[in-house]
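Side project, low priority. Logging it here so it doesn't get lost.
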Amino acid sequence: MKSAFSPVLFAVFIGLAIYLAEGLSGFKVFLNLEALLLVIICLMFFLWSAYPAREILTALRCGFFGCSPGDGGKAEAAAKLLGYAADGAVKAGILAALFGLILVFSAMETFDASTFFRRMALVLDGPFFGYFLASMVFTPMARRLSGQAVRL
């Protein structure tokens, strides 16, 4: 159980560092619901293209709540699916960044230097959310289900 808390502690320390450096306004750049939804929707399309919905739900249930001891190989299958989800989350984050760049550069005809850098910072939220889901959610769950130690 100790290893399951290490990603949470890492996220808490990062959040604490942001808060101490910038205060609550430091979190404003991370509040990009469009990028988060785009990453999650792309990830669901990646998963649904490779696995049936029932297997996805079973793997998520096993990842969050654990599998029963006599599961008949469900833990290994769930670990494989969650590993695929970790890879897909990073790719979905990159895809979200590309969509964001298309939107930023399509609005260049009305270039405003004061908003350009804020928009570019918001573009980077997609890869951040993808990497965060991969390294803090899916990879630790997959490693725990496969019996490996959780590493960051």
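Brief comment: Residues 2-146 form one domain.
Revisit when time allows.
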